[in-house]
Design brief:
The chain folds into three domains: 1-119 and 256-325, FAD/NAD(P)-binding domain, CATH 3.50.50; 122-254, FAD/NAD(P)-binding domain (3-Layer(bba) Sandwich); 328-418, Immunoglobulin-like (Sandwich). Helices cover 20% and strands 34% of the residues. It is built from eight helices and 26 strands. Strands 1, 2, 3, 4, 5, 6 and 18 form a seven-stranded mixed beta sheet that branches. The chain has a five-stranded parallel beta sheet with strand order 9-16-10-11-12. The chain has a five-stranded mixed beta sheet with strand order 21-19-26-23-24, with no helix packed on it. A hairpin with a 6-residue loop joins strand 13 and strand 14. Helix 1 packs parallel to helix 2 (63-75) and helix 1 (15-26) packs parallel to helix 7. The termini are far apart.
Length: 418
């Protein structure tokens, strides 16, 4: 068994892990980056569409191009890489991992950054009845088959759910000659970014059916069709609206969940709202010295925000190692009017960072809105938004001047004003 020591261990080498590793290395700490795949970049490597890096780099980049910017920096850094290495568990802040090359590894870090990303919801999580034929798969799986493996998984496709990956794959499948029969969304609003609706569906005349879902699958060896039905405002099927759509491919784009099996094994408290760890302003979990970043913390819509959160986690880990952990009890951050989920959920008034970003999603679309962070009657920060949508995350950035207004008293409240 090989034993390693490092200042900061980062689990996952996708966009969050790459950004965290570089930031921690720049701040002078020894960093070990652990990745279960045999290459870097994570999910970005199969995202060949553009739209990445608009905020950070002011350019339209593909997923691989965005990842390459970090990978090139990593090559000339002092970051140690453990590729093709799977972390089995974290116990008392000790990492146990295994790889074909190294065998069993025990890693003793001073701090840990969790950056495992997220996973897709599956058929069993959306309760679709019927048989279990081939031809039912998640949007990410279809993306990998087409973009990396070079396979066409079907000829006539139905997409359930209007998340961004599903919308993007509707266009991708159409361009590869697969007939996309329609995108079916159980909610009355689209689940992905507005730009993807226009660029991926409207531009290619791909039908979008809102308040409609798939309830049953047909076929034995291979998918033969699905039953679709319209639903009411309580998402109950409306009698008389059923129809059968003949297809050989059902693509599920029904949401993402933070990947947190390792977090639970490490004793980290999981938020029932974000489904990721409960985090403070430094991205530290409820276990001192363990931090989380990117989609393992909350599912972001933009990779630029993923990188921002990872750098914040790295800075938090460095402060922790330098003995700058908060000495005060944290204030709770509470969801107010029209706020569905947010990050961070706790704040220490002795936070020593230069700035702080709150990330939030709303419950319903609202025009001419104002995002407000308040403590009692004091407005700490507000930001105008022409429109807020559940599919689009809002970032509220606070400066040192804003943070100085927060007192060690009542909770902070994030809410949306008209």
């Amino acid at each position: 068994m090989r034993v390693l020591k490092t200042d900061i261990a980062i689990i996952g080498a996708g966009p969050a892990g790459l950004a965290a590793a570089l930031e921690a290395s720049r701040l002078g700490k020894s960093v070990t980056l652990i990745e279960r795949s045999d290459d870097l970049g994570g999910i970005l490597q199969q995202c060949i569409h553009d739209g990445f890096g608009l905020i950070r780099f002011k350019k339209q980049l593909s997923g691989p191009q965005y990842a390459e910017r970090f990978i090139e920096e990593l090559k000339v850094s002092d970051v140690s890489l453990l590729l093709d290495t799977t972390v089995l568990s974290i116990e008392d802040k000790v990492i146990f991992a295994v790889s074909p090359k190294e065998g069993v590894l025990t890693i003793h870090p001073g701090a840990i950054v969790l950056a495992m990303g997220c996973r897709e919801r599956t058929r069993s999580q959306v309760e679709i009845y019927g048989t279990r034929p081939s031809g039912v798969m998640t949007a990410g799986t279809v993306q990998r088959y087409i973009n990396l493996e070079g396979y066409l998984p079907g000829r006539r496709a139905v997409i359930l759910g209007s998340g961004d990956i599903g919308l993007i794959m509707a266009r991708r499948m159409h361009l590869e000659g697969i007939e996309v029969l329609g995108v079916y969304e159980v909610m009355p609003e689209v689940g992905g970014l507005a730009r993807n609706v226009y660029q991926c569906l409207i531009d290619y005349d791909i039908p979008l059916h809102l308040s409609t879902t798939v309830t049953e699958i047909f076929g034995r060896e291979r998918l033969e069709g699905v039953r679709v039905v319209k639903v009411d405002e309580d998402r109950r099927p409306i009698e008389g609206t059923e129809g059968i759509v003949a297809c050989d491919l059902l693509v599920l784009s029904v949401g993402l969940i933070p990947e947190n099996e390792l977090s639970r094994k490490a004793g980290v408290c999981i938020s029932p709202v974000t489904k990721g760890p409960v985090l403070d302003e430094s991205m530290m979990t409820t276990v001192p010295g363990i931090f989380a970043a990117g989609n393992v913390a909350i599912v972001f819509d933009l990779v630029d925000y993923v990188s921002d959160s990872a750098e914040a986690a790295a800075r938090g880990a460095v402060r922790y190692l330098d003995g700058q952990a908060p000495a005060t009890a944290p204030l709770d951050v509470i969801a107010g009017n029209n706020v569905a989920s947010f990050l961070p959920s706790r704040y220490h008034v002795d936070y020593v960072g230069e700035e702080l970003s709150f990330f939030l999603r709303v419950k319903k679309m609202q025009s001419n809105a104002r995002v407000v962070l308040k403590q009692g009657d004091t407005i700490i920060k507000s930001k105008k938004q022409q429109v807020v949508r559940p599919a689009e995350m809002v970032a509220l950035k606070l400066t040192q001047k804003d943070l100085a207004l927060i007192e060690a008293s009542s909770p902070l409240v994030l809410h949306i004003e008209a």
